[in-house]
Amino acid sequence: EDKVVQSPLSLVVHEGDTVTLNCSYEVTNFRSLLWYKQEKKAPTFLFMLTSSGIEKKSGRLSSILDKKELFSILNITATQTGDSAVYLCAVYGGATNKLIFGTGTLLAVQP
Amino acid sequence: EPEVTQTPSHQVTQMGQEVILRCVPISNHLYFYWYRQILGQKVEFLVSFYNNEISEKSEIFDDQFSVERPDGSNFTLKIRSTKLEDSAMYFCASSLRGGSYNSPLHFGNGTRLTVT
Predict the structure, then answer these.
(1) Which of residues 31-50 of A touch B (CB under 8 A)?
(2) Which CATH superfamily is domain A3-106 in?
(3) What's the pLDDT score for residue B73?
């Protein structure tokens, strides 16, 4: 059965800290991995990764994929209280249009 | 930036009643989806829709569920006879192309359905 596992389940840090969120997957015919940020409502798209070793970067957020070890990390540097959210990892696999989601990591950034 | 819009934001209904959840996908997107998230659980796939027909559905999407694109802009999810376990946040999403093209989904803000 295809699965996506995220760790840690939750994390509390202080403003200015750097955090690393993990996502591992076992998906048949992997095609891409996506990161979303969910604050109360809609998951908002952050990154899509298809190739190993190529870092995607957007401001203080960056992400990289390792297709050999079947995982991805999402890094957030110099965290701010506005980074507090659930971060979701999702994977496309096989000849399908559906995304398989992990349970998410709840990040709380304290002032 | 274009966005997916959903209405209503919150719907309360009695068990056995029919509900229709409405969505307006991003205008140039071709693929439409419904996902749901039961409180404290994962986001789960329900159904994908392309070219006016269902392209894929999950085991959750049984005969009580149906989807429709009644005009050029709206995309609806109908639950014919709601059950308590249908209580969840329902997200509509759209993408420019399908998953086989690694096209990211863009989600609406969701409709929180509460069945009493």
Answers:
(1) 31-32, 34, 36, 41-45, 48, 50
(2) Immunoglobulins (2.60.40.10)
(3) 87
